[in-house]
Amino acid sequence: MIVSKDPNEVRDQILSWKSEKLSVGFAPTMGFLHEGHANLFVRSAGENSKTVVSIFVNPAQFNDPEDYLKYPINTEGDLEICKSSKVDLVYLPDKDTMYPGGIPEVELRIPHLMKNLDATTRPGHFEGVLLVLSRLFHTIPADRSYFGKKDYQQYLVVKEFVKVLGFPMEIIGVDTVRSAEGLALSSRNARLIGQEKEEALLLIRALRLGESLIRQGEKDPSEVLTVMRDVLDSSSKIQTDYLEILDANTLEELPILKGEILLAVAAFLGQVRLIDNLTVKVS
């Protein structure tokens, strides 16, 4: 496994592989890797000749500086996970490499997909995501790039961004990996303490209850939201950031529940912000 901090070395290696007609898969990450990330890498390894992973905690996508400073880092452990997941190259840029001269004042937006969910509650977040990805995609001209659907809005935004800017790359969404109890795996879970992990399960319980109501024929989104919100409000430790039911393809509000539907939640447990979602199709 190649490990490099040099963007030119990384790009040259990838272009060399592609000159040999080898396909390249890419999974951008912020490190502190877990089974969910490994699932992306294994998926890529099964669909491509070579797999590349980047590890970079991107300051441009944090609207809360304290959250950035608290983001967990374990580079040694990350490299072990990459190696065991058959990753061929790991790119480890630092802040000065990624943003020489500082973070540029430029705004990259996909307006029709960035007006609700995290785009509303974390202003500037997706602009920072698209900034770092635009730089990574130039350094790593992969054939396919893999994103977990736990960050569902991010997946849609990036997919449209690549289409609009003409990056010759396919964006592939990979289903959320969960613990045996149902908790969506996240690097932030490491910051949950005491009973907070048990309380965090209320997010998936609320989503699954909402899904069940929709499958039973409920068509009114407000009715479903009320029941889901009651589940979250049953814990005094959970502070809901957002709870929304939207069209899963356009992220528009639905007056009547039909088609492919996204149920999405973000909530704070202490200082830890968690997100989760489910999609359900109904006629």
Protein model, in words:
This protein is of the alpha/beta class and 283 residues long. The chain has two domains: 2-174, 3-Layer(aba) Sandwich (Rossmann fold); 187-278, 2-Layer Sandwich (Pantoate--beta-alanine Ligase, Chain: A,domain 2), CATH 3.30.1300.10. It contains ten helices and nine strands. Strands 1-4-3-2-5-6 form a six-stranded parallel β-sheet, with helices on both faces. Helix 7 crosses helix 8 (152-165) and helix 9 (196-215) packs antiparallel against helix 10 (221-233). The longest helix is centred in the last third of the chain and has 20 residues, at 196-215. The chain starts with a strand and ends with a strand. The model has no long low-confidence stretch (mean pLDDT 96).
Based on Cα principal axes, name the global outline.
globular
DSSP, total strands: 9
Please give the radius of gyration in angstroms: 19 Å
What is the highest CATH level, the class of the largest domain? Answer: Alpha Beta
Low-pLDDT segments, ≥5 res: none
Report the total helices. 10
What's the architecture of the largest domain in CATH terms?
Answer: 3-Layer(aba) Sandwich
Query: What string, H for helix and E for strand, traces the elements in order?
Result: EHEHEHHEHHHEHEHHEEE
Terminal CA distance reads 48 Å
The average pLDDT score comes to 96
Spatial order of the strands in the main sheet? Answer: 1-4-3-2-5-6
Q: Report the β-strand fraction as a percent range.
A: 15-25%
Going by CATH, the homologous superfamily of the largest domain would be HUPs
Structural class category: alpha/beta
Structural domain count? 2
Report the sheet with the most strands, covering strand number, pairing sense and barrel closure: 6 strands, parallel
Predict the CATH topology of the largest domain.
Rossmann fold
Query: How much helicity do the residues have?
Result: 25-40%
